[in-house]
Amino acid sequence: MSAPYNPAPGGHQSGDQPSWSGYPGSNYPQQNQPGYGGSEEYQQGGYGQGGYSQPGSNQYGGYQPSGYQQGGYQQPSYSQQQGGYGYGQGYGSYSQPRQTFGIVGLIVAVVGAAVLISGFFLSWYKVAGQEIKFSDIHKDLNAAGSVAPALPKAYFGWLAWVLLALVIITAVLANLPIGSSALIFRIVAPIVGLAGVLLTLLALNSYFDKAKDVGATDVGIFKHSAIGLYLTLAGFVIAGVAGVFGPRRA
């Protein structure tokens, strides 16, 4: 019959937990005993709170990147900056020049409109002391009826007024801060102004050619011409040029 088990000093009885400190070859200290860092060692200098701790602050000499802070990994923040290249802003540093009213162009357009309108109401010709205005030519063409040339009848009937309105409106719009649309009117206004001059001369030429056919003599576009004709031609030119200025860049 074998002798009862008698553990050596430092051993343990049956049912007792073995002591880590007594385990041969073991370097693991027991909890709550000197030499065992426990959770404190893992939290303060290890992998507990801050992932990697700051350089020089943990006993392992580990390196903590700038992106790692207490509580785990923190995603880098992308700050939005006005006028720069902030995240989500796109190319914020570039902005189109702001448009303002083209003061010079608007003043020229008003002058052109005044000259043009006054020309329609002043004498175009003076023959033997008699003044012939725009309205007088209109009445003469209406009296001629169907034998009147088509272009002069249309011009002195409605076309001249349409051209007057178009050149003034487009010249004004060309000098307003309306974005890319202003560029279109800057092209249209001079074209309308030039068309007004050409159609005025063509209508008068056709009118006097018809007058010569019925026996009139000593007539022509610039024979016996008066201030009204020149103001009309100048008004179309001035109003058309007014559209070229366009809105100012602020």
Structural write-up:
This protein has helices at 38-44, 103-121, 134-144, 150-173, 181-213, 227-245; strands at 68-69, 72-73, 99-100, 123-127, 130-133, 248-249. The chain has 250 residues and is mainly alpha-helical. It has 2 domains: 16-50, no CATH class; 99-249. Helix 2 (103-121) runs antiparallel to helix 4 and helix 5 (181-213) runs antiparallel to helix 6 (227-245). The radius of gyration is 49 Å and the shape is elongated. The chain starts with 37 loop residues before the first helix and ends with a strand.
Feature tags:
45% helix, 250 residues, mainly alpha, two-stranded antiparallel sheet, disordered N terminus, two-stranded antiparallel ribbon, 2 domains
Short description:
Helix content is 45%, strand content 7%.
Strand content: 5-15%
Tell me the major beta sheet: 2 strands, antiparallel
Shape: elongated
Write the H/E string, N to C: HEEEHEEHHHHE
Number of helical elements: 6
Strands ordered across the widest β-sheet: 1-2
Mean pLDDT across the residues is 77
Task: Calculate Rg over CA atoms.
Answer: 49 Å
What's the structural domain tally? 2
**What structural category do the secondary elements indicate?**
mainly alpha
Total count of strands: 6
Task: Classify the helix fraction into a percent range.
Answer: 40-55%
Q: For the terminal residues, how far apart are their CA atoms?
A: 113 Å
